[in-house]
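Please, does this match?
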Amino acid sequence: MTRRPVMIAALVGLVALLSVLSLCAGKVWVPFDAWFSASDDPRWAIIFELRVPRTILGILVGMALGLSGAALQGYTRNPLADPAVFGVSSMASLGAVMTLYLGLGAAAFWVLPVGGMLGAFAGVAILLGLAGASPGVLTFILAGVILNAVASSGVALALNLAPTPWAVNEIVNWLMGSLSDRSVNEVQFAAPFIVVGCALLLLTAKSLDVLTLGEAGARSLGVSLPRLRVMLAVGTGLSVGAGVAVTGMIGFVGLVTPNLLRPFVAARPGALLLPSAIAGAALVLAGDIVARLIPTPVELKLGVAMAALGGPFFLAMLFNLRRKLA
């Protein structure tokens, strides 16, 4: 076996192990033998109604974030690229925040995630419109930065003008990102969009490998850069948008996982996609388990835990890049 299949097999094993721990770990520790106890055991409700949806959602969201980060880094040839940079996550957040601001989130469970998805779709449409017909990477990046700034301003405005302190509290709690209190309804809503979005991103593997020769070289070998850009934008919008819509903002997964795995795939962007998806799932599950087990009065938000991990990692990468450019 070559190095990449071994790495993928090891990552799948790690996700399986973390999934089992995710079903057991929490303020109430559920031992493995409880899974086979009588159906009237109250611990069954903890496992199947709370932790199974939480674990599945953690795997799906982690895959979406890790895969989209690897795809965007491959397209931009920039190891610091992240789904949030292109404004899709921010627009999904803005759509969800508006439902909370208007007091619509309590009407039904699906109102908030639908608002998030509509924001993500609007973000993709605006991103492609701002980028225009030019296939250039720089134009695409600048369009994403503009979109991210506008969406972040909209979220800040909603916080500033929130009609009640309770609305502010709901918005802030949601923006911090979490997998807690998620049910099978959120899984059923997000899963189809995430699966389709991830499939689109995986289909870009060969084009991303060819793109390492440069835009002119890729065009000469038959790669349609506008088509590649649309696939990346729609794939990221579907997968990341659906994840953000049901969990809130969870940052740095798309930044960390591709950079950890890149040395093992000879820096081939296409070969990095699937391992990054699996590693993203492992990272989100591990972060969620740690967030549950830290002894705090209230459960630590997953977005806060990932920021505590990703911030120093991002800073170390900046220093490393500066040394290389010096």
Q: What stands out?
A: The domain at 3-325 is CATH 1.10.3470.10 (ABC transporter involved in vitamin B12 uptake, BtuC). Residues 84 and 169 are 23 Å apart (CA to CA). The chain has 13 helices and no strands. The mean pLDDT is 85.
